[in-house]
Write a structure and sequence with these properties.
It contains 26 helices and 14 strands. By secondary structure, it is α+β, with helices and mostly antiparallel strands. The protein is globular.
Length: about 750
C-alpha cells in the first residue's frame, strides 16, 4: 500500500496463549474515571470491564475501562496515562481520543467465534464477545466484552446499536438539547467576521466587493419564505429581472447571482424547471425561459452560457457508491490487514472511481473559469437541486478570487453557497439515518477538491490542510447548526423554538462551527493558519524589493559565463538503461489514461501553466492522473504504518520556517549596528510546537505516538528473472524498490 510493501508478506501469527481464568478471578485495579458531560448530555447506558484492544503484530493488547453511551457520544473511560505535559497535543475540547459521536459511527460489527457479522437494529439475537466500530473519520475501535457481565453486555450493545442505527426525529438530535442547555452567547471574533449572508446588507456588500452592483441587485422576495423554502431570505438577481418573474415558478428557472469577475462576466446558478407533460405548461415554460434568458444574454454586449451539470458530472448515487468503495480502503483493523491489502491497494483505489470524480469536478471548474476569464461570458450552472452546483460554483470562486483563499473568506463562501444556498446537509449526510433519503458526500467531495488545490499551491492559501481536516470532522458534531439543516427556512421557521406548539418557549441559540474556540485552544488554532501565506500587499513589496536587488546583482556579475553544473538524474547513481526504459513505459501508461484535459480548454489550461504563478490571482489545478492525490492527512492519519516519521510536507514547512527565522535573526543583527535596543522577535507558535512535538510526522498533528513496525522485505535480486519487462510495466500495484537493483 502506497508503495510501502508488496506480496510475500507473512501474516502475523495468532496468539497461542489461552487464559483459563474466569472473569471474576482476574484482578484488575480500576481507577475511577468520571465522564465529562456537555450541557444537555445524558448518560444512557454503560458497561465495565471492557477491554479496548489495540491489535499489533498479531497479538491482542489493550486497556480495561468503562464503555459508556450518551445521547451525544460513545466514550471509553480508562486510567490510561496521559501524554507528557511538555508535549504538544492536538486536542479537541469537545471530543477526546476515545470518544465517538453518534453521528460519526458508520458501521458496527459483532465478532462471534472469530467471525464478523454486521449488527443492525432488531437483528441481534445473540450478543457478541467483541464489537468493532468503524467511524466516518476512518477510526476503528475494538471493544472486547468477554469479561463484562452479561446484563451489561446486553445493555451496552443494544444501546449503541439503537442510538447509532435507528432512525431519529430531527428535534431529537443532541443539537437541540445542547442549544437549550448551553450558555447563550455571541462569539466575538470569528463568527462576526465570517459573513453569514443572513441579511440584505451582507449581499449588498458582496456585490460592491466584486463590482457586481452595476448589473445585479439584492432582493428580499423570500424574506418570509413565502416564495420558496429552498431559497435564502435574501439573494441577488439581474437588475432587469421583474418581481413577478421571480415568483412565477417559486424561484425555479431564475438566474441567481453567485459572483462577478473583474471583466464584468458573472457566475450564476439556476434551479431547473420541473418536467411537465402538458403541452400548455411546456409552452409556458418555454416563453418564461426566453424572457429570463434576455436578462443575462444580450449579444454582442453580454453573452451567457448554460452548463447542465447533470450531463457532464456523475449523479449522486454514483458519488455515494464511489465513496463507499473508497472508504473501505482506510478502515484498517490491524497491521496485518494493512500489509495484506498492499498487493491490490492501487487497483482497488482506481476501481473506487473517487479520484476520477474529483478530477471531473476540477476539470469542470476549469472550463467555467475559462468562459468567465477569457471569453467574458456569463455562466449559468443549472441543476435540479443544490448539490454539484454548490461544488462547481465554490471551486470556481476559490480558483478565481483570492479572498476566498483566506480563512474568513473561505468560511464566508461556505455560508453563501452551501448553508444559505440551500444544500441539504441533513439529507446528504443522513444525520437522521433515514432509508428514503438520497445520501451522498457532496460536501466532502468539495473539501477534497479544495485540498487538491491546497497541496498543489500551499502558499496561496491562508488556511492549512489541518483546517480542512477538522472542518470535515465537524460534519459529525451535533453541537453546531451549520451542517444539521437542509436550508435556512428549515432552520429559521420549523425549529425557531424548542417546542413548536408553545409560542412562549424561548428561541434556541444555535452555535456556528466557525467559532473555533469552542473546539480548540488558541495554540491549537495556530495550526489552522498557514504560516507561509503572505498577504497581497506584503507580496507586492517583496516583489519590488527582489526586482531591485536582482538588478543590482546583475550589474556586479562577471561577464564570463559560469560553468554549468553536471546534470543529475532522478537517482543519485545512473540507474541504467533497463530501469530508464521501465520507468518511461510505466509513466507513459499512467499519462495515457483517461485524464486528458478536454480540447475545449486545452489551450487555456496549457498557456496558464506555462506562466509564472500569481498566488493572488487565478489558480488552475493540475488534473493529470498522478497529480490527483489521496487526502493523506484525513484518510491515513490513524494508520501508524502509513506515516513517515520526521518527513512529509510538514518537514518542508518546518525547514522553511527555520530559514525564515535565520533570515530574521540576520536582519535584526544588521539593524542593531544602526540602532541598539531592537526588540527580539519571538519564535512563532507553529515553529515552537513543531520543535517540541513527539508526533512530528508526515500526518502531523494527527500522528499516533506508538509505531512498532517492521516493513516487509521483498527480495528484489531475482525479480528480473521472474517476469519480462512488458509484464512488469502492466502490473498495477506491486512495489518494486528500484534503488536496490
Amino acid at each position: 500500500m502506497l508503495g510501502l510493501g508488496a506480496a510475500g508478506v507473512a501474516k502475523p501469527t495468532k496468539p497461542s496463549f489461552v487464559s483459563y481464568l474466569a472473569p471474576e478471578e482476574i484482578q484488575i485495579k480500576e481507577k475511577e474515571t468520571n465522564i465529562h458531560l456537555l450541557p444537555g448530555e445524558l448518560l444512557l447506558c454503560e458497561a465495565s470491564m471492557v477491554l479496548k484492544c489495540t491489535q499489533d503484530e498479531g497479538s491482542q493488547r489493550g486497556v480495561y475501562g468503562r464503555l459508556v453511551c450518551t445521547n451525544f457520544k460513545i466514550s471509553f473511560l480508562c486510567d490510561e496515562s496521559a501524554t507528557d505535559d511538555n508535549e504538544f497535543d492536538f486536542k479537541n475540547k469537545i471530543i477526546g481520543e476515545n470518544d465517538i459521536t453518534l453521528h460519526c459511527v458508520d458501521q458496527i460489527y459483532g465478532v462471534y467465534d472469530e467471525k464478523r457479522k454486521c449488527l443492525l437494529t432488531g437483528h441481534v439475537k445473540k450478543y457478541p464477545e467483541k464489537i468493532i466500530i468503524l467511524c466516518k473519520d476512518f477510526r476503528v475501535f475494538h471493544f472486547c466484552l468477554r469479561y463484562t457481565k452479561e446484563e451489561e453486555v446486553k445493555r451496552i450493545v443494544s444501546g449503541i446499536i439503537h442510538h447509532t442505527q435507528s432512525p431519529i426525529l430531527h428535534k431529537r438530535l443532541f443539537l437541540f438539547s445542547y442549544a437549550a442547555s448551553a450558555p447563550h452567547y455571541i462569539a466575538i471574533g470569528t463568527k462576526k467576521q465570517t459573513v453569514m449572508f443572513d441579511t440584505l446588507e451582507d449581499w449588498r456588500l458582496e456585490l460592491e466587493r466584486t463590482k457586481g452592483n452595476i448589473k445585479y441587485k439584492a432582493v428580499s422576495s423570500n424574506a418570509s419564505y413565502g416564495l420558496c423554502e429552498k431559497l435564502p431570505p435574501f439573494f441577488v438577481v439581474p437588475m432587469s429581472l421583474l418581481e413577478e418573474d421571480i415568483s412565477e415558478f417559486q424561484g425555479k428557472g431564475v438566474p441567481i447571482w453567485c459572483w462577478s469577475c473583474h471583466n464584468g462576466s458573472a457566475l450564476l446558478k439556476m434551479a431547473a424547471l420541473p418536467k411537465e407533460q402538458d403541452e400548455s405548461m411546456l409552452q409556458r415554460h418555454k416563453t418564461f425561459s426566453e424572457r429570463i434568458d434576455k436578462t443575462v444574454h444580450r449579444p454582442p454586449y453580454e453573452v451567457s452560457r448554460i452548463e447542465e451539470l447533470a450531463n457532464s458530472l456523475p449523479s449522486l448515487p454514483e458519488i455515494q457508491m464511489a465513496y463507499g468503495r473508497f472508504k473501505q480502503l482506510f478502515w484498517m483493523e490491524n497491521r496485518a490487514d494493512f500489509w495484506d491489502s498492499d498487493m491490490k491497494w492501487f487497483t482497488l483505489l482506481e476501481n473506487s472511481n473517487w479520484l476520477e470524480i474529483i478530477r471531473q469536478c476540477l476539470m469542470k471548474a476549469i472550463e467555467v473559469a475559462e468562459y468567465l476569464e477569457t471569453e467574458s461570458t456569463n455562466v449559468i450552472l443549472k441543476e435540479s437541486a443544490s448539490d454539484l452546483c454548490c461544488v462547481i460554483a465554490s471551486l470556481v470562486q476559490v480558483m478565481m478570487d483570492p479572498y476566498y483563499r483566506t480563512k474568513l473568506g473561505f468560511q464566508s463562501l461556505i455560508q453563501k453557497e452551501w448553508v444559505m444556498g440551500g444544500h441539504a446537509f441533513l439529507d446528504r449526510c443522513n444525520h437522521l439515518r433515514q432509508t428514503d433519503k438520497e445520501e451522498a458526500p457532496v460536501f466532502l467531495l468539495f473539501l477534497d477538491c479544495v485540498w487538491q488545490l491546497v497541496q498543489q499551491y500551499p502558499v496561496a492559501f491562508q488556511f492549512t490542510e489541518t483546517y480542512l481536516t477538522v472542518l470535515s470532522d465537524s460534519l459529525y458534531l451535533p453541537i453546531f447548526s451549520t451542517f444539521f439543516f437542509n436550508s435556512p427556512c428549515h432552520k429559521d421557521i420549523q425549529y425557531m423554538c424548542g417546542d413548536n406548539t408553545d409560542k412562549q418557549s424561548p428561541h434556541l441559540s444555535f452555535h456556528s462551527v466557525w467559532d473555533w474556540s469552542v473546539q480548540f485552544e488558541p495554540k491549537v488554532q495556530a495550526l489552522l493558519k498557514n504560516p507561509l501565506y503572505v498577504d497581497k500587499s506584503k507580496q507586492d513589496k517583496t516583489i519590488k524589493r527582489t526586482a531591485r536587488s536582482k538588478h543590482q546583482r546583475q550589474l556586479s556579475l562577471p561577464l564570463t559565463q559560469a560553468k554549468a553544473s553536471p546534470k543529475k538524474g532522478f537517482f543519485r547513481d545512473d540507474p541504467g538503461p533497463f530501469i530508464k526504459n521501465f520507468l518511461s513505459k510505466r509513466i507513459s501508461k499512467l499519462m495515457s489514461s483517461s485524464d486528458e484535459v478536454p480540447n475545449s480548454c486545452r489551450e487555456f489550461y496549457d498557456s496558464w501553466h506555462c506562466k509564472h504563478v500569481d498566488f493572488h490571482g487565478l489558480l488552475l489545478p493540475h488534473i493529470e492522473g498522478p497529480l490527483i492525490r489521496i487526502w493523506a492527512q484525513r484518510c491515513l492519519r490513524w494508520i501508524p504504518d502509513a506515516q513517515i516519521l520526521g518527513g512529509g510536507s510538514v518537514a518542508m514547512v518546518s525547514r522553511v520556517l527555520e530559514t525564515i527565522e535565520e533570515i530574521e535573526s540576520l536582519r535584526r543583527k544588521l539593524e542593531e549596528k544602526q540602532a541598539t535596543g531592537s526588540p527580539v522577535a519571538k519564535e512563532t507558535e507553529v515553529m515552537a510546537m513543531l520543535r517540541k512535538s513527539a508526533r512530528f510526522s508526515s500526518l502531523y498533528p494527527f500522528a499516533l505516538l506508538h509505531r512498532i513496525s517492521v516493513k516487509p522485505v521483498i527480495p528484489t535480486s531475482t525479480w528480473r528473472g521472474l517476469e519480462e519487462e512488458e509484464d512488469l510495466v502492466k502490473r498495477e500495484d506491486e512495489f518494486i524498490d528500484l534503488g536496490n537493483i
